[in-house]
From TrEMBL:
<keyword id="KW-0460">Magnesium</keyword>
<dbReference type="InterPro" id="IPR036691">
    <property type="entry name" value="Endo/exonu/phosph_ase_sf"/>
</dbReference>
<keyword id="KW-0479">Metal-binding</keyword>
<feature type="domain" description="Endonuclease/exonuclease/phosphatase">
    <location>
        <begin position="4"/>
        <end position="248"/>
    </location>
</feature>
<keyword id="KW-0378">Hydrolase</keyword>
<dbReference type="InterPro" id="IPR037493">
    <property type="entry name" value="ExoIII-like"/>
</dbReference>
<dbReference type="InterPro" id="IPR005135">
    <property type="entry name" value="Endo/exonuclease/phosphatase"/>
</dbReference>
<dbReference type="GO" id="GO:0008311">
    <property type="term" value="F:double-stranded DNA 3'-5' DNA exonuclease activity"/>
</dbReference>
<dbReference type="InterPro" id="IPR004808">
    <property type="entry name" value="AP_endonuc_1"/>
</dbReference>
<comment type="similarity">
    <text>Belongs to the DNA repair enzymes AP/ExoA family.</text>
</comment>
<dbReference type="Pfam" id="PF03372">
    <property type="entry name" value="Exo_endo_phos"/>
</dbReference>
<protein>
    <submittedName>
        <fullName>Exodeoxyribonuclease III</fullName>
        <ecNumber>3.1.11.2</ecNumber>
    </submittedName>
</protein>
Amino acid sequence: MRVASFNINGIKARLPRLLEWLEETRPSVACLQEIKTQDEGFPADEFEKIGYQAIWHGQKGFNGVAILADGERPVEIQRGLDGDPEDDHSRYLEAEVFGLRVVCIYLPNGNPQPGPKFDYKLRWMSRLRDRMRAISAEEVPAIVTGDYNVIPHDRDVWAPAAMAADALMQPKSRDAYMRLLHDGWTDALALHNPRGGLWTYWDYQAGAWQRDHGFRIDHALLSPELADRLVACGVDKSYRGREKASDHAPMWVSLKA
């Protein structure tokens, strides 16, 4: 079973690339971020044509997350995080599918920092930790995957000095991410690539893709009940080089049934 994550950076603009990827790699579950469309504009019928059913949590113009499953409709458990009734961003979607608890997240970027956007990022990460602790208490096989907007270590970026002032690399961002791991979650890509050097994002500017100036901000965290089933993981890097591609590449984990 393959569970994948893809920040598509606008589902309408990238739909041909997304459909190509789904048909060519055929993940059992695909979690999408930055769909950037209202609920009524989500192209569910296009996915149904190729055998995928979906649930989604949209928002006009930015944010938005979705979970697709091959031949089965995900059963929604929760959308949005508790703890801030004024937070109306579409960044969290949780479902049951194929016997797994699947959580798709689009964590706040936090730039510029310091400032209110960075403060919001840290609060959101604290709320995420609360929810992940609740999931852990259920002792279910679970995956929390998506765009975390955190570069966990210097080895996860092409040049640490180039990103040193960015919210993605601040000590408080990294600390909040590490707290999730200390709670018992496993970073799949880090486990299988301990030396780093594996990127999931390349900016559109300054020839970042052509020069391989990227970093890793898309992660898959596995509960203890699922970590033992991890067989392989990786990044579908070549899709970043296609015409009108997202600035992210899809990442995936392969699990024993």
